[in-house]
Write a structure and sequence with these properties.
Elements lengths: L1 E2 L16 E7 L8 E6 L2 E5 L15 E4 L2 H5 L4 E5 L5 H4 L2 H5 L6 E3 L1 H13 L8 E3 L5 E4 L2 E7 L8 E7 L2 E5 L17 H10 L1 E7 L13 H12 L5 E4 L5 H13 L3 E5 L1 H13 L23 E5 L9 H6 L13 E4 L8 H13 L3 E3 L14 H11 L3 E5 L3 H13 L14 E5 L4 E6 L4 E5 L2 E5 L1 H13 L1 E8 L6 E10 L8 H20 L5 H20 L4 E8 L1
């Protein structure tokens, strides 16, 4: 990867009347899928390109991507992508975008290391130009002078991004918190943020995930104390579930395991990948011989083992969920195991997490999952930290980002209390275009934005209609009606036969299905009397008559699929 050199002597004070456009394509009024565009002098800079995970309504969907149609239509104007950090909700959609548009990517060492692992999975590692930067670097991309500023988050090498233009400074905080006693000793560069504030920040886009929470976020270093207390009082196996990319947490778990002479078994592909990348880049310090293969577990006593696994969000295919449901090929939950959830549920995942916790208790495990146990802390700033950032930066305009609407609204209210005029605060939605200069700012339009659903190898081929059908099938089932007609006379020569799936159990509902067949037969006879022979009209007649009949009998509306054959 090519090293980006600092550019000195850049004149940031020259003024012109070109307007700046801010266009979020993801991350607003939702959790994840973060992607923001900055446009200036007919050039585009992309900040982050992440994915999100499906909610309960997205049946069968694996991941959700931002809609990049606008970028594809304007690919010749894009100067590059700058990344704030290496979490999935900020880099996960990049391989899908890079398959369509080949762009230079700028990020810090660990961020690009995690991205490289994803690019290898998509066979893009030889095609994409990655350029490594470090906190404090400033470099020029067309009309943009991009500065990386050291930040503090739940993953090392996180940065805020300051985009310097001749019209003003755009500051994007990325995900952050203010931790005065960090695990790696790298604190957010408040001094530089204060300098930018004195210089004059035109607009700030700031993380709103914890804008509802008063006070400050608990320091990550306190997690180590809670983990030690749990390890000290446990003589059985310990299983810790956390986010694979939460490297600061992983380091504390490793340190605690070493202190209590426990060997670590890693389960989960994403966890293994992060260990490999983190250790290679020096972001994770793994003592020699502390890791053992899953096949070596029988060589150790229970009080010598720690299982580090994915599945803290209750994902059905993650390692912990498979252990809880007896579906893991090599690992089972034993009575007396201590399972620690070192992560809080992402909004929308509460039911899945609760289900896994119940399954673990049923198998005789002890489970620590309560927030009061202090085995997890957020990577996002609470209200007092947000106030400090607002006071330091003192932006002219403000855009709350990264959160559901309630988070954005609470952050907007906080900004108003900190002195930003209400007319200068923009609680936007994905796709809206905000134009600004030193004199004014206003929303001037909207571009295409929304979710792109990934199901298996299909990207974007499942839309709202398919999801509606899946929901319909899941709720009420399917009824197939098969009729064979004489080709010349359009008379029924066989059927109607009815096949039910997910609606009623056939053997126990023979009377209902018999009545349904009679109802279909009656509608076909009426069509014959009226001289109706078009297949589409016949199918509609079958569907309409059966729909009304079944609703009267069952108060349910299964999907009805008529099939007509001619002989």
């Amino acid at each position: 990867m090519k090293k980006v050199l600092k550019i000195k002597g850049v004149n940031l004070l020259a003024k012109n009347q070109s307007k700046i456009k801010i266009i979020p394509l993801g991350g607003l009024r939702e959790i994840g899928k973060n992607l923001t565009l900055v446009e200036y002098k007919n050039e585009i800079l992309i900040i982050d390109c992440g994915l999100s995970f499906p909610d309960d309504e997205m049946l069968g969907i694996d991941i959700v991507l931002p809609d990049t149609t606008y970028l594809e239509k304007n690919k010749d104007r894009i100067k590059g992508v700058v990344l704030t950090h290496g979490h999935e909700d900020h880099i996960g959609a990049l391989p899908y975008l890079l398959k369509k548009i080949n762009l230079p990517i700028y990020g810090t060492r660990l961020t690009l290391g995690l991205l490289e692992a994803k690019l290898k999975e998509h066979k893009l590692e030889q095609k994409v130009h990655l350029q490594r930067v470090k906190a404090g670097d400033m470099f020029q991309l067309g009309a943009f002078n991009v500065e990386f500023i050291r930040s503090s988050h739940s993953i090392p090498d996180a940065c805020a991004i300051a985009v310097h233009t001749s019209e003003g400074i755009i500051l994007h905080t990325g995900d952050f918190r203010i931790d005065y006693s960090t695990v790696d000793g790298e604190m957010i560069d408040l001094h530089r943020l204060g300098e930018l504030g004195k210089q004059g920040v035109l607009v700030m886009l700031a993380d709103s995930t914890n804008a509802e929470r008063p006070g400050t976020t608990m320091s990550e270093s306190k997690i180590g104390v809670a983990l030690e207390n749990a390890f000290m009082n446990t003589k059985s196996r310990i299983i810790v579930a956390t986010f694979a990319s939460h490297i600061h947490r992983l380091q504390q778990i490793i340190n605690t395991a070493e202190k209590f002479n426990r060997k670590i078994v890693i389960s989960g592909r994403s966890m293994i990948n992060v260990f490999e990348v983190g250790a290679e880049l020096g972001a994770l310090h793994v003592p020699k011989d502390i890791l053992i293969d899953i096949r070596e577990m029988d060589d150790y006593q229970d009080d010598q083992l720690l299982l580090l696994t994915t599945g803290s969000q209750g994902e059905p295919m993650a390692a912990l969920s498979r252990m809880a449901s007896n579906d893991h090929r090599k690992l089972d939950i034993q009575k007396g195991d201590l399972v620690i959830f070192s992560a809080s549920p992402i909004p929308g995942n509460e039911k899945m997490v609760s289900r896994v916790i119940n399954q673990l208790f049923e198998k005789g495990a002890d489970v620590i999952y309560d927030p009061m146990a202090e085995v997890h802390t957020s990577g996002h700033a609470c209200q007092e930290e947000l106030k400090l950032i607002h006071r330091l930066v003192n932006p002219k305009y403000f855009i709350p980002v990264h959160g559901e609407y309630r988070h954005l609204k609470q952050h907007a209210n906080l900004a108003a209390r900190m002195g930003v005029p209400e007319e200068n605060i923009f609680t936007m939605e994905n796709g809206q275009v905000l134009e600004m200069n030193q004199k004014q700012a206003k929303i001037t339009g909207k571009v295409q934005a929304g979710p792109v659903l990934v199901d298996g190898l299909g990207v974007g081929d499942v839309g709202s209609i398919v999801l509606r059908d899946r929901k319909h099938l899941a709720e009420d089932g399917l009824m197939v009606v098969v009729v064979t007609l004489d080709k010349k006379e359009a008379k029924v020569v066989a059927g109607p036969d009815i096949i039910s799936r997910g609606f009623v159990y056939v053997r126990e509902s023979e009377d209902l299905l018999g009545e349904a067949r009679a109802e279909v037969q009656k509608s076909l006879e009426q069509c014959e009397q009226k001289g109706i022979r078009e297949w589409s009209q016949l199918k509609n007649a079958i569907r309409d008559s059966l729909k009304d009949f079944l609703y009267q009998k069952t108060q349910r509306r299964p999907m009805i699929l008529p099939i007509i054959m001619e002989v």
